Fold these 2 entries.
Entry 1:
Amino acid sequence: QVQPVESGGGLVQAGGSLRLACVASGRTFSSYGMGWFRQFPGEERKFVAMSWAGGRTYYADSVKGRFTISRDNAKNTVYLQMNSLKPEDTAVYYCAAAYTGAPGTTINDYRYWGQGTQVTVSS
């Protein structure tokens, strides 16, 4: 079983940066596709970025060019570097481990979820 735990959220001004980290326990971390999702109040979780086990990465159009996902398999950790943050990026951010090494972008592709970390961007 894999248990993701996020960290790194907080309050930042518009235009600033934050780096989220997600440590996922389990000896087979390198075989999991890992994703980041975010949830706005009253809405479902939405895809932000993902890293396939083989290293390919994908991004939602709304964050492309501003966010970067990376992973360190030796540390069982996936990161989300968020630059040029906007107030509309304010959300709870969730890390998730997928059922496979090459997941899709829907929440149903992911099996294990972290507890979430709040990111607030002030204008």
Note: The first strand starts at residue 4 and ends at 7.
Entry 2:
Amino acid sequence: VQLQASGGGLVQAGDSLRLSCAASESSNSYNMGWFRQAPGKEREFVATIRWSSGHIYYTDSVKGRFTMSRDKPKRTVYLQMNSLKPEDTGVYYCAVGSGILSSLRYADQYKYWGQGTQVTVSS
């Protein structure tokens, strides 16, 4: 599976950005997620969608601010990020895996990764 992420940029705190990630293929066994990595920190889970059900899960720090969605025919997921904060800064990666529900937040459960897109939020 090849993933192409786009949409990052430099914004000010409180602004919005929308990230996109297009996959070369999809499967009802897949989960498609967003992770981010700030300089000097480990990659962390942001949100993921179970392709079969459309259920979406978020990390607590982005709930109410970020919204993940998908266009199933286009095999594309989006991450609408509102009310951005400086601590949201990092490289955002989309990823595809087929882990079970309890493992959705763990990066090692995702087999395919996109190239990453930089999001920088200035204060």
Note: The two ends are 37 Å apart (CA to CA).
